[in-house]
Design a protein that fits this description.
Length: 232
């Protein structure tokens, strides 16, 4: 949600990481800056899920102070190489120079530039069959911090829009998990439930999501309705 107060509440969660979703939300660049400002006091690592793998979105999120980017739609080794290059400064990449806010958050500009390439998390999202088919190539890209599976989009690409839990989808996610294990690349997946998180952790996932701001509101409303029903 593009609201600084909601971000402040989430910042108190003491989670390992918080993901700000700009791909599937109405968050503008100005709102993203406000959310990142609200999250800054948090000890959680703040990752921005950018709207697209295009260079401009990656550069924008990092310049505003994101500690990492989660980049959707990576379907090939070339895609992944471009994502990494957009996230890192030369000589390791070609990130545009202009970290006006980011360079003021932790010391001086020189401090930021000295550690940016080593500290920025570059997470690529595999979300379709094309990406799964070449996952061993994607996983070998130098500078990649981890691979994340977008189960919803993957299910849609496989013809299971109404059944993301279909066995074929689960097997495709497992293909990614096994590739990450072979190449010693951290593997993550959007889970949403404790049961799903436990399952994928048992399959090698080190990055799992356990909820969202909108989801917490939905759950709270549902609990209130259940409680109200007992009073009627």
């Amino acid at each position: 949600m593009p609201d600084p107060f909601v971000a402040e509440l989430m910042a108190r969660s003491q989670m390992d990481a918080l993901i700000v979703d700009t791909e599937h939300s109405a968050m503008s660049a100005e709102q993203l800056q406000g959310v990142l400002t609200a999250l800054h006091p948090s000890d959680s690592t703040v990752i921005v899920r950018v709207a697209d793998k295009a260079d401009v979105y990656i550069k924008h999120a990092l310049d505003l102070g994101a500690e990492g980017v989660l980049v959707p739609g990576v379907s090939s080794k070339a895609d992944c190489e471009a994502v990494v290059a957009s996230s890192l400064y030369a000589p390791r990449g070609n990130r545009g120079f202009g970290p006006r806010r980011a360079s003021r958050l932790y010391g001086t500009r020189a401090d930021y530039l000295a550690r940016a390439n080593d500290n920025i998390a570059v997470l690529a999202m595999v979300e379709n069959v094309a990406g799964v088919d070449v996952i061993d190539e994607i996983a070998t890209v130098d500078g990649l911090s981890g691979l994340f599976v977008g189960v919803g989009d993957l299910a849609v690409s496989m013809g299971h829009i109404l059944d993301p839990g279909a066995p074929e989808v689960a097997e495709a996610v497992s293909v990614v998990a096994r590739s990450c294990a072979r190449h010693k690349v951290p593997f993550g997946v959007f889970t949403g439930t404790e049961a799903a998180a436990k399952h994928w952790i048992s399959q090698g996932a080190t990055l799992v999501t356990m909820g969202s701001d909108v989801g917490y509101i939905d759950a709270g409303i549902a609990r209130t309705r259940e409680s109200w029903a007992t009073l009627s």
